[in-house]
Structure formats: C-alpha cells, structure tokens
Amino acid sequence: MAEERDPVDRVDRVVAQAGRMAGWLARTSWQAASRLPGGEAAQRQFRKAEKAVLDEVRRRLDAEETFTERLIGESPAVVDGHVDAVRSAMAELLRLSTELDRRTGREHLFLSIVRQLVPDEARILAALSDGSVYALVHVAGRSALGGPQRIVLRNASSVGRAAGVMLPDLVPNYVTRLESLGVVEVGPEDPALGVQYDILLTEDRVRAAEEEVRTVRKLTPRYARRTLRLSTLGEQFWAAVDPARAG
User: Fold this and answer.
1) What InterPro entries does this protein map onto (predicted)?
2) Alpha carbon of 136 to those of 73, 193, 240: distances in Å?
3) Among 12, 18, 162, 187, who pairs with 247 as Cys (CB 3.0-4.6 Å)?
C-alpha cells in the first residue's frame, strides 16, 4: 500500500472512523455497548480516535487564532497611544463582515460554537444527531397554599446516559449551555418516553433537587416533563461538523 503523503488525509480518516463509532455507541448506549461482543474494544478505539480528533481540532483552532491575531496586529485600534486588543478584535470582525459570503459566515458561526463545547457536550450532540428525542424534566416546588412554582433544577435529561458522558451530574448544565447556543431545543412531554422519565427521576441530581424542595424549601416537589432534541440550527451545525462526513 502506498504511503499517505498528506497528514490531513490520515486525520480525516481518523475523524470519519470516530464519527462512525460515535454513532454506533450513541445508538446502542454507552452502557449497553460494553456488554456486546467487541463493545469494550470499540469503546477503547473510540477514545483513541476521539483524542486524535480533539488534538487536531485544537491545532486548527490555534492556527486560526494565530491568523486572527496577525490580522489584528496589522490594523490595531490605538487608544491613548496603546493598542486596544478588544477594540481591535471588534474592528476586525466588522471588517470581515463586509467581505464574507454566506458559506464562510456560517463556517465562522459553527467554529465559534465548536470552540465553546466540552467533550461531554459533543457526545450529547452526537446522541441527538440521528433525530432521537430524549426525556427531560425540570424539578420545581410549590407551596401547599398554591402560588407560582419555584424551579430548583432545569434540564435534567436522559440523553446523558445514552451518550455515555463522563460527568453525569453535569448533564443539566450541559443541556442548558447547548440550549443557550441554540443547537438544542426543549419541547413538550412525549408520553411514549414513559420509561425514560421513570428512570430519569431516580438519578442522583434529580433526587437531590427533590430533597432540597422538601427539606430546605419546605415545598411540594413538582416535575415538568419535557423533551430534548436538536434544533434546526443544531441540525445544520451537525451536518457541517459531523466527523463521519469528513472528506
């Protein structure tokens, strides 16, 4: 076999392999995959590929940051004889906004989203990428006399278990961050997800919130059942960044 000359080709092959494994692991669920023939080996291989992909993403992001810094350095904003880095960065964005076409503008948006993600959030997006819908609950409390509910925990979701995140207790935080980026959306309850809701209500973070409502706030726990899926922007984002489509 001829040796590959371009290291980018090797990276793209690793990215594509990681994407295929991520899709299989997300569909199977991380816990169930470990019990299937070859599942543990697939998980180990996925972690190796995942690390290689993250290293390459960091390298490319560093390269773009260096490029941006160079551009800012070429036309800096000077205030009182000193270079104002913040104003220079804004000036560069405004300059670019007059030059970018639609495709390049979308690339800048999607790259800014990638920069803000942590690995567990990437796993959640991979789990949602096939159109799956997952259970989500808000935990709230209401006094016996009525009145408005006080939400104690937002966005607890079964997607974390399916995605095999490393920090399950932070799934509500992950989902909240992804929602703020506009790549996921919370919808109405789906009765077909009854089993997911039941399991979700037994998770540690949800039980802790329930206990806080009862013992600290002296209120009656209430659960607002919702669903979680990719938003339209999230679907467009994943289509652009999906490692399985590399090359």
Assistant:
1) Abi_alpha
2) 46, 10, 26
3) 12
Which of 228, 221, 193 lies closest to 207, judged by CA? 221
Q: d(Cα 197, Cα 123) in Å, to the nearest integer? A: 21
Q: Which stretches of the chain drop beneath a pLDDT of 70?
A: 1-83, 144, 146, 246-247
Question: Residue 129: helix, strand or coil by DSSP?
Answer: coil
Whether the CB-CB separation of 141 and 149 falls below 8 Å is answered with yes
Backbone angles phi, psi at 187, to 5 degrees: -120, -175
pLDDT tens string 171-181: 999 999 999 99
H-state helical runs in 29-97 = 30-33, 39-74, 85-97
The reported pLDDT for the residue numbered 217 is: 85
pTM above 0.70, yes or no: no
Instruction: Give 3-state DSSP helix, strand, coil % of the chain, rounded to 5.
Output: 65, 15, 20
In three-state secondary structure terms, 147 is strand
Helices (H), 75-158: 85-97, 102-116, 119-128
Spatial CA neighbour of 113 closest among 162, 183, 18: 183
Kindly report the number of other CB atoms within 10 A of residue 243's CB atom: 22
CA atoms within 13 A on the CB side of 173: 9
Phi, psi of 185 (to 5 degrees): -140, 150
